[in-house]
Design goal:
The chain has about 100 residues and is an all-alpha fold. The protein is built from six helices and no strands.
Length: about 100
Amino acid sequence: MDKLDLAIIRQLRSLARDGQPPSRMFSALKDRLGGDTHILTILHYFQGAFCLDLSEAKPFVSLSRNDKREIGEEDKAFLDRLVMPAIAKHRREWDVPDA
C-alpha cells in the first residue's frame, strides 16, 4: 500500500467537521482518487483519516459491492448510520490541529 496523501486525509476530516455524512465523504474520495480506485485504498483512507478499525470501516466494502463500487441510494442512509458513530467516537484522536 502506498503512503496516504495527507491532503486527502485533511479533506476527509474537513468534510466530517462540516457535518458531511460518510456516504458523501465516500463519493468525494472516489471523485478525487478516480473511479477505478481499489476499495481497499478507500478503506485505508477512512481508517487513516478517522482512526477506524477494520470492523468500523467494513460497511464501505459491504455496501459498495457492485461493478462500479458505488453505494446505492437506498444504502446511503444505512451506511451513514453505521459509520458516523464510529467517526464521532474517535473524534478526539483525529480532530487535532495540524494533523
